[in-house]
Amino acid sequence: MEDLRAAVGLQIADEGLLRDLAGGLSDVEALLRETVRSEVKAVNDAATHLVEAGGKRFRPLFTLLASQFGVGGREAVVIAAAAVELVHLATLYHDDVMDEATMRRGAQSVNARWDNTIAILTGDFLFAHASRLVADLGTDAARIIAETFGELVTGQMRETVGPLDGEDPVEHYLSVIAQKTGSLIATAGRFGGMLSNAPAEHVETLRRVGDIIGTSFQISDDVIDIASASEQSGKSPGTDLREGVRTLPMLYALADPATDPRLVELLSGPITEDHLVEEALTLLRASSGLDRAKDTLADYAQRARVELASLPASPARDACESVADYLVARTG
């Protein structure tokens, strides 16, 4: 249970809540393994690859945490928690193909171990099983997960295409990460509240909190990729620079007329040489872009706290607030 306390900064003082969440996650883990198992060895090996690799399991954890604001429905909540994690894992398989990644969660990525076709089909396999699980939860749940699929894909397509002419790059970026990351965590919160029979206004609040926290996670990772000298985000600092990905601190820096012209030049495309990555990191750390991104993160965290204040005071609400605090603290 100590690992659960450390998960994504979740601070849980209440032993009863801690035991309940740990038991729920154990049930989710068992259901995940049961769901992805296949009698076809090639399918089984690829589908279990990321499940066995582990991860923080934040999405199912947030589903379980959101269910604390209702009463009952434990079996349905566990099913929903497993489904949202399957959707998340499916997107990781597809992301690795698009990013040409070779590692994922400390293990060789599926596209590298097998090939892109296997990775894409495995992602589709997990999407299918997530849909099957949610189908047992009723038509409302099935509609919600379908809408979430649409948000995830739309966000990925918009990121690939980039901002349209005349569209503000920062607003485009924030809306894209809300779709790509926020939408699924929002659905996790919504499912947890809805399936535990929480009041409708609490369900809507949990949806909004999930959306804000999901977006905040990405901004937090953006900041860490530049500001940290360690590997807090699970990847070497400057990874986004090497991939030519313009994250929020970079976009803010590019929008500032006072930004060093050398940094503008470096951010014109992917940076492949180590010494140029270090130069760009040094310039970004001294730019206004990094501070503005931290300010935006702090604003999102405050928005989450305001939303949470409308929920009943409880250990579960305190735990949710600790996530908002952690997202800011981890970038310090």
From TrEMBL:
<keyword id="KW-0808">Transferase</keyword>
<dbReference type="InterPro" id="IPR000092">
    <property type="entry name" value="Polyprenyl_synt"/>
</dbReference>
<comment type="similarity">
    <text>Belongs to the FPP/GGPP synthase family.</text>
</comment>
<protein>
    <submittedName>
        <fullName>Heptaprenyl diphosphate synthase</fullName>
        <ecNumber>2.5.1.30</ecNumber>
    </submittedName>
</protein>
<dbReference type="GO" id="GO:0000010">
    <property type="term" value="F:heptaprenyl diphosphate synthase activity"/>
</dbReference>
<dbReference type="InterPro" id="IPR033749">
    <property type="entry name" value="Polyprenyl_synt_CS"/>
</dbReference>
<dbReference type="InterPro" id="IPR008949">
    <property type="entry name" value="Isoprenoid_synthase_dom_sf"/>
</dbReference>
<keyword id="KW-0460">Magnesium</keyword>
<keyword id="KW-0479">Metal-binding</keyword>
<dbReference type="Pfam" id="PF00348">
    <property type="entry name" value="polyprenyl_synt"/>
</dbReference>
